Each structure stands twice: as structure tokens, then as C-alpha cells.
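Incident review: delayed structure delivery

Summary: a single-chain prediction request sat in the queue longer than the usual turnaround. Root cause was a stuck worker, restarted by the on-call engineer. No data loss occurred. The affected request and its eventual output are reproduced below so the record is complete for anyone auditing the incident later.

Affected input:
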Amino acid sequence: MRYFIEISYNGSSFCGWQIQPNGPSVQQELETALGARLREQIALTGAGRTDAGVHALRFFAHFDSVHEDLASDPGWVDQLNRMLHRHIRVHAIHRVAEQSHARFDAVSRSYLYRLARSRDPFTCDLAYHFYFPLDWSAMQKASQLLMTIQDFTSFAKLHTDVKTNNCAVFEAYWEEVGTEWHFHISADRFLRNMVRAVVGTLLDIGRGKMPPEDILCIASLMDRGAAGTSVPAHGLYLVDIRYPLGVFI
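Output delivered after worker restart:
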């Protein structure tokens, strides 16, 4: 049987989603707990990878099991959560079609970046504290221009194994929430480090280092060195992954 597991996690304690030789990962924690609970070897395939320190409010991975009733027993999820690291929570187990794939079947992903505009000791590990004066309207205008860009090579980590750097961004905007500024972005796919590089570039625009329209020039150069510095990982959240109708049984 194939299942999707729906989770959230605080990335502060992990080297990222994917198993790494140099530190604990969310994938390893889940595989270990699932294997112990189900008494079988479990291999998880995530909807993507998040870097060290990045958080996820809604993340999916798929796995195969000989057990047929996992999705119908809510008590089983509670037991699994008691076995997991305190920074990981399983929300649900979904039965899916045998060919369903957590990564390749996803049709969109959404991210949030939290920018703290005043000092708060309770958010220092969960938002990027940034106190420079910023031009809100310039950043908002540049965000809208992201939806006209097709190739995001200038905002991507170099030397990755993807076949194309084209992405279709269909939502990008800033929102003021209390003393924080939140950047929201949704697209059909994202490249490694893309959101952090985009936010870094938007902050340069907000500080008046360039006009909003320059984000189009940066994209046209297809040169990572042309864009802004990547902002820290701890302010980034994967907030949603969408799948087409028919994936969940």
C-alpha cells in the first residue's frame, strides 16, 4: 500500500529534510520512527528538499507499507508523534494510488519568509531580524514583476542537476503582520535557494540599492552573482503543497 504522510517541522534542529552524513535530518527521524512502529523497513520520498534550518508548516512524503489500515486509525498517528523528535509533528496519513509520487505529482508549492522589524527574543530563531529602513512600495512592485519572469537561473543555487530553471510564479507579495513583514510566494516549482535569493534581492531594492525594475535585468543576465545575497534559512517556511484531484483515495 502507498501512503502520503503529512507533517510539519521546525527546522532548527535538523540539517534539512534529506538524509545527510553530517547531521540529523527530518527524513531520518521519520523513517526510524515509522520503521520501529510498523516493524518494517520504511523509505520515504519527500515532496522536495528543504535546507538546514528551513521550516515546514505543511510537507508531504510518500512511503510503501504492507499494512492496509494506517489511514483509518487516528490513534496510530498519536502513537507515532510520541516517538518523534519534539520539532516534528505528523498531522495525517493518507492512502493514495499506487503510482502517486509526493514530489512529481505536486502542482504547486507556497513559501513564506518572515522578516522581523523589531527586536524580539522569542522570534530570533524563527524570523530574520532586519532593521534597515525599507521602501515598502518598491519591494511590493518588484514582487509583482516576479510573475513576469520565466527563467530564474539568477536566483538559483549553482551546479544543481535540474533540467530547466524555468518556474511559473503566480503569486508574490509582502504583507505586514504586527511588527513583522511577511513575503509570500507561490509557483509551480522552485529551484534550490530560489526564495532566499529572491528575498535578498528584494531587500536590496527596499534599501534603495536599485529600482524595482532592475529585478527583470537581473533575471535576464542568468547569473547568480547578479542577484542579492541569500537571506538566512531560519526565516523561511514551506507553507503548502498542492496536488491534483484524484491523488488521495
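Verification: The helical segments are 26-38, 74-83, 136-145, 194-206, 214-221.
Action items: add queue-age alerting; document worker restart procedure.
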